[in-house]
Amino acid sequence: MNRLLLAMLLVLTALPVRATGVGGMFEQGSSQFSLMAGNGYALNNSYFVIGASASYYVVDGLGIGLSLENWSGSGPGIIKYAPFAQYVFYQESFLQPYVGGFYRHTAIAGLPGINSVGERVGVYFASGSNAYIGIGFVHESYIDCQRAIYFTCSSTYPDISFTFGF
């Protein structure tokens, strides 16, 4: 699985990107694909998390998209999907600050699903003409949360991503 993920990353970073101005990957009409993998902690269990997202920039700097995460390796299984919006303060620099928001639905095997809203903030570092590494933080608040089931009703966690533009 790790070799497959690494191979996908290498192939995607080698893909050509159309000529763009200062906004680069964040200009109107640009599309992006992000991959994520790591560990997560929920319901007193540790999980292996793998996910992906796709986005489209409707105007310069403003992207909308959808993300999907699969949490496995522990029980119960968890799947999360979220529409999101993100604004990138693009500039002539290898650093691109970003802010964003999302609405997420979490499906948990054997338990009622739960919805949440959140915001993210961070910075993208250029790692190629069509690739960025994102580092930041996310704060997520669960709607109609029942502490007896979910243990916590909000969380803040690191946000690390590999983003590829087309």
Keywords, separated by commas or semicolons:
single chain; about 170 residues; mainly beta; Porin; eight-stranded antiparallel barrel; 2 helices; about 10% helix; elongated; disordered N terminus
Task: Describe this structure in a few short sentences.
By secondary structure, this protein is mainly beta. It has helices at residues 2-14, 147-150, and strands at 31-42, 45-59, 62-72, 78-88, 95-108, 114-128, 131-143, 154-165.
Structural Rg? 17 Å
- Going across the biggest sheet, name each strand in turn: 1-2-3-4-5-6-7-8
Mean pLDDT: 83
Order of helices and strands: HEEEEEEEHE
- Total helices: the number is 2
Count of discrete domains = 1
Any low-confidence stretches, pLDDT <50, length ≥5?
A: 1-22
Shape: elongated
The end-to-end distance, rounded to whole angstroms, is 25 Å
Per the CATH scheme, the topology name is: Porin
Return the CATH class: Mainly Beta
Strand proportion, as a percent range, falls in over 45%
The total count of strands amounts to 8
Helix content: 10-25%
Second-tier CATH architecture:
Beta Barrel
Biggest sheet record: 8 strands, antiparallel, barrel
How would you classify the helix and strand content by structural class? mainly beta
